[in-house]
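pasting for ref
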Amino acid sequence: MPTVRLDDRALISVQGPDARSFLQGLLTQDVDSLEAGELRYGALLGPQGRLLADLFLLGEPEGTVLDCRAEQRDALLQRLSLYRLRANVRLAADDRSVFAAWGTDMAGWPADPRLPNLGRRFYGAVVPNQATDDWRKRQLDLGVPSSEDFRLDVDYPIECNLDLLNGIAFHKGCFVGQEVTSRMKRRGKVKSRLLPVSFDGPPPSFGQEVLRGDLRAGEIRSSCDGRGMALLRLDRLDGSLTVEGQRVQVHIPDWLDLAG
């Protein structure tokens, strides 16, 4: 069973009588129905509907654990503290490690809620047997973006495919940024999405412009061994795409519905 310790992820414990209702009003995911031991995917948005953090939510008997990008944990703790107001909630850093695994013999590990083929996640102490790059390559194989592909406070969650990766509960009540998010989905006004790409030659860096002829088609968000992710305009996918003169090929995975 390939197992990777995700040192770029960290945990926040949200406990107390009001923990579920507190998060329910903030996050894109339905927290009220989250069961103990269940893992869901979601996000915290700004008031204008832009992505501030993508999160995994692990249900616990007395609350919820948030799996976030490690470099964001302190800032998220501070932001959540500001939202807390009079809610009876305890917020604290959780020092357990985060692991991802795929393959067989994973009983007892909560399933990655984005796609079945991504395997499972675990929180605690495990001996990893794979390098972090193996996990990144697996995500790219499946066309699934990760936190490093997002421009925080710039991207919308639908552009980052959270609506297609079980990251937004459109049926739930209000959450921060809901109006903008729901309107984009309902009206079908999704102009750009993160898409997997491949290329030959030196890897382009984050933010390098993708062109279709002389027209801007988007920008590179990550690259690894000739593959990567790019935020691309959906109306400019036809034709030859290039980055600094080298050809870029777009790959649309089966799960990604561009009309969704």
